[in-house]
Amino acid sequence: MSKQINNKETAAIKNDKALSFDCASSSPFLNAQFSALIELFNGTAEGIFVINEQGDFEFVNPKAAQLFGHSQQSLIGDNLLTFLNDADLEKYKQTLSNWISIKDTALSYGPNEVTINKANGDVIEADLSISSMPKSLASAQKLYVCILHDLSTHKAMYNRLKVQASTDHLTGLANRLALDESLKKYWQESIQSQQPLTSILIDVDHFKKINDTYGHIKGDKCLQKIAKMLLQCIPSRECLAARYGGEEFAIILPRCDIKTATVVANHIQQQIAQMSFTDIGLPPEVKITVSQGIASENNNQYRNYEALLYAADTALYRAKTEGRNKISTII
Ligand SMILES: Nc1nc2c(ncn2[C@@H]2O[C@H](COP(=O)(O)OP(=O)(O)OP(=O)(O)O)[C@@H](O)[C@H]2O)c(=O)[nH]1
C-alpha cells in the first residue's frame, strides 16, 4: 500500500487532530482546495512539511519523510528542532519563538543551509525554507510550510570538484593554484605572528634525459614516485608539498626557519639518492638527483610571498649552476 497520504487518510489524520490544517470548513470549495494541496505536496519531489508554532510536524510529504528517515505517520507530532544539527538548532529555536509573538504577518525564512540528523544516524545537508501558511488554510493556529531541498549530491560533487581543482592530476600533490592560496594564507599568518615561513623549490636534475631515454610515461612514473617521497619528507600536516610545474616541486614550511628547512632538504637529498626505479621498469643503474633552493622569511626581509618564492628560485638556479644535486640557501 502506498505510504502517500490519500484523501481518506488525510481525513482520518485530521479527525485524529494530527493534521491541523484548518480545513474543517463547511465550504466544499475550500475542502477541495485543501485536498488538491495535499495531493500536490505528496506528489512533489521536494521535501515539503507543515509545522506549527512550536515546530511540531502537522504534515510531512513522502520526500520529506525520506529525508528525515522516518515514515510520514510517525513524524506527525515530532518536532523539527530534534532533527537539526546543534549548529542550526539555536538559530531555528530563536526564529520560531520570535515568530510566535508576531501576529497577522506573513513570514518567510530561508532558504538556509541546515544539517539534518536522520533517524538512522546519517547526516544530510539540505536547504530549508519556512513560510507562514496563508490564513485561509490555517486560521485556527499559525502554521508554516517548509521546503527541504536535499543538497547531498551537489555537496558531494562540489567537494569532489574542490579537491580536483586544487590537486595536481599526475602526482596527487597540491597544484600551483593551491600552492599560491596556501602561501598567501601562510604569509599573512607569518607576518601577524612574526613566525618564520620557509619555502624550498626542488627541481629534478637532467630530467629531459630520463624522458628522452625511457619515454614520457616512465618519466611520469618517476615524477609520481618523487612526489610520494616528498610527501613523506614533510615534517607535519601543516606543511605543504606541491607541484610547482613540470619537474619542479615546492615545499612550504610554516613556522620553520632556515635550519629546519635545511634538515628537510638534506633528508630529501638522501631519500632521492636511495631511490630505485626498477619497480617502474627502469634499469637498476638509473639514479636521479635534485637541486634545491631555500629561502626563509624571518625578519620582514621580503615584501610579499611572491618575493619569497622568487628568492627560493634564485637559490635553486644557483644550486643548478653550481653543478646540480646541491642545496643552496638565501639568507
Ligand atoms: N614525463 C614528464 N615530463 C615532464 C613533465 N613536465 C615536464 N617534463 C619534462 O621535464 C623536462 C625538463 O627539461 P629541462 O627544463 O631541460 O630540464 P632538465 O632536463 O631537468 O635539466 P636541468 O633542470 O637543467 O637539470 C622536459 O623534458 C619536459 O618534457 C611531465 O609532466 N611528465
From TrEMBL:
Task: Give the PROSITE patterns listed for this entry.
Answer: GGDEF, PAS
- Which Gene Ontology cellular component annotation is one that this UniProt entry carries? plasma membrane
Q: Which cofactor does it need?
A: Mg(2+)
Q: Which GO terms describe its biological process?
A: cell adhesion involved in single-species biofilm formation; negative regulation of bacterial-type flagellum-dependent cell motility
Domain GGDEF residues, every copy: 195-331
Q: Name the chemical reaction catalysed here.
A: 2 GTP = 3',3'-c-di-GMP + 2 diphosphate
> Where would I find the PAS domain in this sequence?
33-103
Q: Which GO terms describe its molecular function?
A: diguanylate cyclase activity
| InterPro entries xref list | Diguanyl_cycl_sensor_dom, Diguanylate_Cyclase, GGDEF_dom, Nucleotide_cyclase, PAS, PAS-like_dom_sf, Rev_trsase/Diguanyl_cyclase
Task: Give the EC number.
Answer: 2.7.7.65
A Pfam family for this UniProt protein? Diguanyl_cycl_sensor
| The name this protein goes by in its record | diguanylate cyclase
Protein's organism: Pseudoalteromonas haloplanktis (Alteromonas haloplanktis)
